[in-house]
Specification:
This protein is of the alpha+beta class. The chain contains ten helices and twelve strands. The longest helix has 53 residues, at 143-195.
Length: 418
């Protein structure tokens, strides 16, 4: 830049002495430099946007078009606030009012042309520019970096929970087993109590008070109530045992054992398993299975666990006469299965949290089922798509690749003959 500034300074210093041929040479060189800079700016991935003192767009490169959807020359001369209404442009345009030459950074999300997380850097074009001078804006797409940060945070949180699971699960499991055994012993004693015949009143001399024995009906009533209390206690223990099992499965996932399998068969086996519960709830089940669905490398047990979790969530989200739809399909590089319900849907503010551990929208949920689903799908190299509308229902769509990712091996080093 120093050489270019020197060239321009020399030209401006003697511009009044240049003839027509000299002016033509200067113009050609400036045009060449402009073409070079234009090519350079259109090559970089970050967006470059220049705004004048009246908030009008005077220049932008092709990356800006890709990032925020500016189209051709129609955007030149338009107010930049039309594209970033959430930013304080008066403050940004006056950021060098005190001559510090500082750079201002902002982060925000956009939804058009597609959802992105943008990091914006704003700086005056000249370090000693006066207030109200033109400003250069650099737009950096930080969507992927932000997602990696979220994944790193999630990984650290899961590691912390894993350490917690190793100590807590054992401490809770032993007392639960002891409680379960003693409840079974109490249940046996109650059955013996119900089998004892009612005692006959003792024979005594006339006029003596006989000790009254409790009637058999009263003993049966007490035994019945004790059985009911035991059922409640056993239900609570089973619930705690289920939560611990889910917790350990979520924290200590087993690598999938991949073998060619049909999603259609897994769906049908899962529906057969849950059929009685679906019938008891009075739900309508619709199957839309692809007739020629290719096999994919899947762990049948784990994928069935995924479908069980999703179908049970769908059942709990619906009332009687609700409709559960399971559909399969295939693409050029994978197969997919969707689980759709006609329940109340998930509010938009909760969609980003439903895969978090212990987050649940149900009164008795553990908040681990969807975390397990996400873990298994990721281990298969697949992905989850979620669509939910409040009052209409929710659709989970799971995609799995048709081929396993090949294992990359290091090439053996070849030794040169001596």
């Amino acid at each position: 830049m120093a050489a270019k500034s020197s060239f321009l300074d020399k030209v401006l210093g003697r511009i009044d002495r240049l003839n027509a041929e000299g002016l033509q040479t200067v113009v050609q060189r400036l045009a060449s430099e402009r073409s070079f800079l234009e090519t350079l700016f259109n090559t970089i991935e970050d967006g470059v946007l220049v705004v004048d003192e009246e908030q009008r767009i005077v220049y932008f490169n092709q990356a800006v078009t890709r990032l925020i959807g500016l189209s051709g020359k129609d955007a030149e001369g338009r107010s930049v606030s039309e594209y970033f209404p959430e930013l304080d442009w008066q403050k940004i345009l006056a950021l060098d009012a005190v001559g510090t030459g500082r750079v201002v950074r902002h982060e925000f999300e956009i939804q058009f042309p597609r959802p992105r997380f943008i990091r914006l850097y704003a700086a005056p074009l000249q370090a000693k520019a006066a207030a109200g001078s033109a400003v250069a804006l650099i737009l950096h797409d930080a969507t992927e970096a932000r997602q990696k940060t979220f994944e790193a945070i999630e990984s650290e949180r899961v590691q912390a929970l894993t350490l917690l699971a190793a100590s807590v699960a054992h401490e809770i499991g032993n007392p639960l087993n002891a409680l379960h055994i003693h409840l079974q012993l109490m249940e046996r004693q109650i059955r013996k109590l119900k089998a004892i015949p009612a005692p006959s009143p003792p024979a005594g001399r006339r006029g003596a008070r006989a000790t009254a024995a409790p009637p058999s009906s009263e003993v049966e009533d007490i035994a019945l109530k004790l059985e009911q209390y035991l059922d409640v206690a056993k239900g609570g223990i089973n619930r705690l045992d289920y939560i611990i099992t889910q917790f350990l499965q979520a924290m200590r996932p087993v690598p999938p054992q991949l073998h060619p399998a049909s999603l259609n068969e897994i769906v049908q086996k899962t529906l057969t398993l849950l059929g009685p519960e679906l019938d008891n709830r009075g739900l309508v089940v619709r199957e839309k299975l692809h007739r020629q669905l290719p096999e994919a490398p899947l762990d049948v047990v784990q994928i069935q666990q995924v479908l069980v979790n999703l179908i049970k969530n769908a059942m709990q989200a619906m009332t009687r006469d609700g409709c559960l739809t399971l559909q399969t399909g295939a693409g050029s590089d994978g197969v997919w299965v969707s689980v759709a319900d006609t329940g109340g849907g998930i509010p938009s503010e909760q969609l980003n949290r439903i895969f978090e551990p212990f987050f649940t929208t149900k009164k008795k949920g553990s908040g681990l089922g969807l975390m397990i689903v996400q873990r298994i799908v990721r281990a298969h190299g697949g992905r989850i798509e979620l669509e939910s509308n409040v009052g209409q229902g929710t659709v989970f769509r799971l995609w799995f690749p048709l081929h396993e990712r090949p294992t990359r091996l290091l090439e053996a080093a070849t030794m040169e003959p001596a």
